[in-house]
Specification:
By secondary structure, this protein is of the alpha+beta class. It has one domain. Helix content is 27%, strand content 24%. The strands form 2 sheets. Strands 1, 2, 3, 4, 5, 6 and 8 form a 7-stranded antiparallel beta sheet that branches. Strands 7, 9, 10, 11 and 12 form a 5-stranded antiparallel beta sheet that branches.
Length: 224
């Protein structure tokens, strides 16, 4: 067996990577939730662990008729099973052993310094990847609303849209149990401001505007 082919076989046999939406997420690190299954309409419901226990299904983000997803993915919509209606204005969902936060809830309950962040699918949900007694960590495609607006306004048509999309990143986000709020890592310097209070060895060099995703995950594992 050729070495390269053997490596590919080993990669798949160990389920090391999850492709598609989860191409950056190893199966081993995804947080399995102890929260009772159901829809947490409010932050208070979430803190009390008292969901509305209704039947729901995950659906994809794209297309007029959203497909029901056979497997859990990182970013999706949730629909009530009957009637077939998208879940809006919820705080979180616990489904099939995984915990999801609605992006709109993240934006409404974020730290005061994170008010410039926005998202194109605010009613969608993102899955918690890492969790502990101190923090729950997820990632979402958030953009700086002012930079995005400038990209749209300065250039017309499709070119403006393309430029605006360059400002969107899969940014790290933590739910901070102590402060009952979300903290969005807007950029590398912002992450350093957050982490210096918990783990000084986690401070990044900031060679790029955004911190390295895998480094963030390793650090959150230490302080979760």
């Amino acid at each position: 067996m050729r070495p390269f082919f053997a490596f590919i076989v080993l990669l798949f046999s160990n389920n090391y990577f999850v492709f598609g939406q989860d191409s950056l997420v190893t199966r081993e690190v995804i947080y399995k939730s102890a929260y009772p299954e159901g829809v947490y309409i409010t932050k208070s419901d979430f803190l009390k662990k008292t969901p509305s226990q209704v039947q729901i299904v995950p659906k994809g983000l794209i297309g007029f008729k959203k497909p029901v997803l056979a497997e859990s993915v990182h970013n999706c919509y949730f629909y009530y099973l009957s009637p077939d209606k998208r879940i809006k204005d919820a705080f979180a969902v616990s489904y099939d052993g995984y915990l999801y936060f609605q992006i709109n809830a993240i934006l409404k309950n974020r730290h005061k310094d994170d008010d410039s962040q926005t998202n194109s699918f605010p009613n969608s949900f993102v899955r918690v990847l890492i969790g502990g007694d101190n923090f729950l960590y997820t990632e979402a495609d958030l953009a700086n609303v002012w930079a995005k607006g400038a990209a749209y306004g300065g250039v017309g048509g499709g070119v403006g849209v393309a430029l605006a999309n360059k400002w969107t990143y899969g940014k790290g986000i933590v739910w901070d149990f102590a402060n009952s709020e979300f903290n969005i890592f807007r950029n590398c310097k912002d992450f350093n401001e957050f982490i210096k209070n918990y783990y000084e060895n986690g401070i990044q060099e900031c060679k790029k505007n955004q911190p390295e995703t895998f480094n963030i995950r390793e650090i959150i594992e230490k302080i979760k």
